Amino acid sequence: MTPNLHYYPVCLDLRRRPCLVVGGGGVGTRKALGLLAGGARVTVVSPELSPELQALAPERIEWRRRLYHSRDLEGMFLVFGATNDEVINRRIHTDALNENILCNISDRPEVCNFILPSVVRRGDLILAVSTSGKSPAFAKKLRIDLEKQFGEEYATFLQLMGVIRERLLSRRHEPEAHKHLFEKLIEDGLPEFLHRGDNTGADGLLRRVLGPEFQLESLLEAI
Fold this sequence. Notes:
Layout: E1 18-22, H1 26-37, E2 41-45, H2 51-54, E3 61-64, E4 78-81, H3 86-98, E5 102-105, E6 118-122, E7 125-129, H4 136-149, H5 153-169, H6 179-187, H7 190-196, H8 199-210, H9 216-221
Parallel strand pairs: 1-2, 1-4, 2-3, 4-5
Antiparallel strand pairs: 6-7
Helix pairs in contact: 5-7, 7-8
């Protein structure tokens, strides 16, 4: 049994960082698409490539159409091993360890120095669930539950909060001075008003907490 690990959760900024995916099948495709969504510069090493990834090469991904070589790791920030060859996957792990590169081998948490959580995205809201590799099925179940609980209105909610924060900061107030205002908006149900589509209620709450100049319609237009 894999020893208990205490993972350190972190959100990585992958914009323009070179990242490697070894394997061009279904798993490799998911990893590559996830990296692209994070803004990474993606290289895929594989003799074959899924049609979905082929459509992205060479404009959005670099395809090295061959088997993996250790030199493929040169300059990489992280690597995903996603082949069906255990020997190659183990070699990727060893090479990455020697080069101090972040490495994830699909379905092999014991040879990973990071694992991926199950994720719900609602705009800038990211909800991540991990069972530390013990039960992916339970992580999936929790993700589905969270998808039902947190709808797309939370993306709008966070955009509103961002616009409000910018307007308050433009008054040259210290950010800490606004903390109670944001807490009040949350406690009094701004997300719930948006979930119900109750724009009148949301508008009334904004005016009551922030003042008459904060109107829902004008804030939405600023998003």
